[in-house]
From TrEMBL:
Residues 1-59 form the 4Fe-4S domain. The keyword 4Fe-4S applies. InterPro entries: 4Fe-4S_dom (IPR007202), Ac-CoA_synth_d_su_TIM-brl (IPR016041), ACDS_complex_subunit (IPR051069), Dihydropteroate_synth-like_sf (IPR011005). This is 4Fe-4S domain-containing protein. One of its GO terms (molecular function) is 4 iron, 4 sulfur cluster binding. Keywords: 4Fe-4S, Iron, Iron-sulfur, Metal-binding.
Length: 279
């Protein structure tokens, strides 16, 4: 949320030194509020003031990037609820899953079909942006092998889906150079998952069953040193999911509630159960 001139003035040194080109610190603060001056013009501003002003100027929803090279994708950084209010900065990322129960030729065929997948909606041609490897087997070895094969055969942005810290650590060791999105950390695994994400410079999904628990979890992960966070709601019906996603967006954008100021991830197959091969 933008600060007023008086709020900015309270963070300035109040020396009236005129080295910024303004006659007083208050005049400089007013110029800052109107984006007609730069904070760097003040030689005596404290680091604490810089941090507070940077946080206030940041978009209400953090931008999160994952993937590498030309196929890197970005989500978040939105500032409004609806497109007509201003614009949306980053489109929704579409991902298709790959089960780690697949192996050999079956796995390769699945990956190749996802790579070439395109479809048309309302006159617009859409393609897949990311590929998500899911730890359906529960085995760290199977997950790691499936992730490594997927990373080798696909240039799409990679999402690693497991709630096991052991499986996540093993797969990131093989695929960390692709900057995958790690999904997901829950309350009981937050510290371990955050350590993996921080050490490998990867974004992390925070997953909880309610908005309240989700906001607490995102703060817990942030306190562990991870800044790039994606939010995910667990075990909700389609109706509850839509309602709560709207609440998260409203609280993040309208109320600038920073613990919910992150992009969200939804796995549609969890709302409409089907065979994993059709996800």
């Amino acid at each position: 949320m933008a600060l007023t001139g008086l709020e900015i003035f309270k963070l300035l040194p109040k020396t009236n030194c005129k080295k910024c080109g303004m006659p007083t610190c208050l005049a400089f603060a007013m110029q800052l509020a109107q984006k007609r001056a730069k904070l760097e013009d003040c030689p005596y501003v404290s680091e604490e003031a810089k941090e507070k002003l940077a946080a206030a100027a940041a978009p209400p929803m953090r931008k999160v990037a994952f993937g590498s090279g030309d196929n890197q994708v970005q989500v978040g950084q939105e500032t409004v609820m609806f497109r007509h209010e201003e614009k949306f900065y980053n489109p929704t990322v579409l991902a298709v899953t790959v089960s780690d129960k697949l192996a050999g030729e079956d796995l390769k065929k699945r990956i190749e079909s996802i790579n070439s997948l395109q479809f048309e909606r309302v006159g617009t041609k859409l393609s897949v942006d990311a590929i998500a490897v899911v730890n359906d087997s529960g085995s760290a070895d199977s997950f790691t092998q499936a992730a490594a094969t997927t990373n080798e055969l696909s240039n799409l942005a990679l999402i690693l889906v497991t709630e096991s810290a052991e499986s996540m650590a093993a797969s990131v060791e093989r695929c960390g150079d692709s900057s995958p999105l790690l999904a997901s950390a829950k309350a009981d695994t937050a510290k371990e998952m955050a350590k993996i994400a921080k050490e490998n410079n990867c974004p992390l999904v925070a997953k909880a069953e309610s908005i309240e628990a989700l906001s607490e979890l995102s703060e817990k992960i942030k306190a562990e040193g991870v800044r790039d966070i994606v939010l995910s709601l667990d075990a909700l019906s389609l109706r509850e999911q839509l309602y709560n996603l709207s609440r998260i967006r409203t609280l993040g954008l309208k109320k600038v509630f920073r613990p919910l100021g992150y992009p969200t991830l939804t796995r549609l197959s969890s709302l409409m159960p089907r065979d994993s091969s059709d996800e």
